[in-house]
Amino acid sequence: MYEPISNDFFDQLTVAIQRKIPSTIVYLQNEKRETIKGVVATLSVVDYKEFLILKGGEKIRLDLIFTFNGKKHRDAHL
After folding, report:
1. By C-alpha distance, which of 31, 23, 32 is closest to 58?
2. What does the domain layout of the chain look like in residue ranges?
């Protein structure tokens, strides 16, 4: 089930997009904790779920992100 992100997290993403800040993202993918680095190009909504899209085309569901540039956004159950 999708859980909407906090306003603080949304603001942090918006600043990263506007300033083209290289970012480190730790997130859940296929039941595994993954880390990716890149510049967030945009945010998108697909089937009522929010995603960030990196300049390289990678798409990450926002509610599956544990940390964004070192700031915790979700508890890691792994």
Report:
1. 23
2. 7-72
CA distances from 35 to 1, 7, 47, 48, 65 (A): 22, 23, 25, 24, 10
pLDDT digits (tens, 9 = 90+) for 38-50: 999 999 999 999 9
This prediction has a pTM of 0.89
Across 65-76, b (16+ Cβ under 10 Å) vs e yields bbebeeeebbee
Enter the CATH code of domain 7-72.
2.30.30.100
No. of helices (H) and no. of strands (E), the chain: 1, 6
* 13-31 pLDDT, tens digit each: 999 999 999 999 999 999 9
